[in-house]
Amino acid sequence: MDSQQHYLLLGATGYSGIEFIHQALETVQRPNVTLFVRPGSEPKLPPAALTNTNFRLVLGSLTDAQAIKLALAGDERFPPVSIVVSLLGAYPSFIPLFTRDTSTPIADALRSTVLPVMKSSHVSRIIALSTPTGCYSAEEARTVPWKWWLYMQIPRLLQPQGNAEMKHIADVVIEAGTKDRDLEWTVFRVPHLTSGSRDVGVIAGHLDRNYTASLNLSRASLVKWVFNEVKEKAWIRDTPMLANP
User: Fold this and answer.
1) Integer-rounded Cα radius of gyration of the chain
2) What integer pLDDT is reported at residue 209 of this predicted model?
3) In the chain, which stretches have pLDDT less than 50?
4) How many distinct helices (H) and strands (E) make up the chain?
5) Gap between the Cα atoms of 78 and 56, Å rounded
6) What does residue 8 show for φ and ψ, rounded to 5 degrees?
7) 75-101: string of b/e by CB count within 10 Å (b at 16+)?
8) Tens digits of per-residue pLDDT, 30-87?
9) Spatial separation of the C-alpha atoms in residues 27 and 25, rounded to whole Å
10) Helix extents (H) in 136-180
11) CB-CB contact of 235 with 35 (8 Å)
12) Is the pTM of this model over 0.90?
């Protein structure tokens, strides 16, 4: 892991965000990490992240352009952010099951605030979490495996707001990359997330007839994959599906 890399982590207080922090803390050459969280959410963070000199905390909302700009900027300790990692996701709720709400506040904030401020701050790389809610190639649309097609119907029926949010996050990042060829984006899609080992393998690929994997992915292996992808850049401007074997 490159100790000179400076990450801006969005979604730091979620389960995957906490795992990201733990893995960053455990590496010998710790990267610089800015944690962007809503005011009042600091107690959800691992205590070590609040005291370790490789971490800093910036409070704000995703629609606060000044807070995002501050988070991306360097200071006397940190260089400017080199990569944004978004582990933002919709929180499960039964209310949209009855209201059929399909609002997308996270994706809207990425489009209106986060991505434009990244551009003005000359931050050109983002890795963002999504789910297998959409097909991003003609081959996927034609040959998505039946078990994955059936799996994708569950959130559409039971979590319409969360499903819409996660798909729109992918659409917004891809759209930004289409307009700005300097943006190095990766949207990684995940199935059911588990608390399994970080050492289990991760199968990354397109969701077509050749994709063979389980419907599960451990958060720890997901985070390990993200750190590897930052270094290897194997999926720039692409939408890999991730799952454990």
Assistant:
1) 17
2) 86
3) none
4) 10, 10
5) 9
6) -105, 120
7) eeebeebbbbbbbbbbeeeeebeeeee
8) 899 999 999 999 999 999 999 999 999 999 999 999 999 999 999 999 999 999 999 9
9) 6
10) 138-143, 146-158, 160-179
11) no
12) yes
d(CA 183, CA 106): 19
- CA-to-CA dists, residue 231 to 56, 188, 234, 238, angstroms: 22, 15, 9, 16
To which residue do tokens 């010998």 refer? 28
Nearest to 88 by CA among 5, 191, 170: 170
What 8-state DSSP symbol labels residue 224?
H
Architecture in CATH of 6-243: 3-Layer(aba) Sandwich (3.40)
Give pLDDT, residue 152: 86
The pLDDT assigned to 96 comes to 64
19, two tokens:
């795992």
Query: Three-state DSSP class for 76?
Result: coil
How much is the pLDDT for 46? Answer: 96
> Distance between CA atoms of 176 and 183, rounded to whole angstroms?
8
Nearest to 65 by CA among 125, 120, 123, 10: 120
State the residue for tokens 């490789």.
Answer: 54
